[in-house]
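User: Show me a protein chain along with its predicted structure.
Assistant: Here is one chain, sequence first, then structure tokens.
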Amino acid sequence: MNPRLDEPLRLGTRRSKLAMSQSGHVAEAVRAVTGRPVELVEITTYGDVSREHLAQIGGTGVFVTALRDALLRGEVDFAVHSLKDLPTTQPDDLVIAAMPRREDARDALVARDGLTFEQLPDGARIGTGSPRRTAQLNHLALSLGKRIETVPIRGNVDTRIGFVRDGELDAVVLAAAGLNRMGRGGEATDLLAVDSVLPAPGQGALAVECLASDADLIAVLGELDDPYTRAAVTAERSLLAALEAGCSAPVGAFADLLADGQIVNEMRLRGVVGTLDGTTLVQLSTTGPVPQSYDEAMALGRELADEMLAKGAAGLMGERSL
């Protein structure tokens, strides 16, 4: 890291409003820790320019590769990713120096007329580009005795919510964390409980990445790290990796901390895999001591993945992503 305190640190970010907002929050935190200016360097990724649905282009890495290339070329000093977009395999020459405290991990419904999911009419058209959401939303609808039509959509937050405002769709589902970070959480008409719809592994969390060789910057960025967030998302991503599934697979996972009074002593990890029509889900959970190391968190995820595979999870994911 350049020791000159007046030289800006360069933060690589996607160009979308959401990414810029997320990166802006991290930039402010880095400024507070270092006393150095931080400038945002906007980078266009393949996922930003492709008009294909994420399930078709694979999901894994499409929003990440260009940022990582910029890091490796020395064009930026560090980058901010939505953790759920990161492939589960970490390159040797890069390191996730910080995972700041996680935002709300739930999915949010933005529906016409202020409707909640339960209030949506039979046959409601709901926009989502996520197979994970499609599977669980269909399952939730069936449990309520109705059917929905899930419509694949792409686009930024404004575009997606615009489908509802224009009457093309009855509702869309977005990450609550993104809405909150943009100051638009109030536009959600319903927050889907994790007991009903498990989020994507790592949803709501950010990854701050830099060169593995930059020990000084790693130490500085590490001050933003939240150990509970890191333990939780590491377990979730371990489950995803052990299922040999990519970001576009219909896999949900969520680790939460269980407290006895004021003392956090256990972590519960839940995972789900389902068919897109929602008729079949494999959903299991495991509980253990709060992981004190990367290896312990990884083990928790692998343990649950093994149980899910034994229950037939592989057959519900379609072609597995190796």
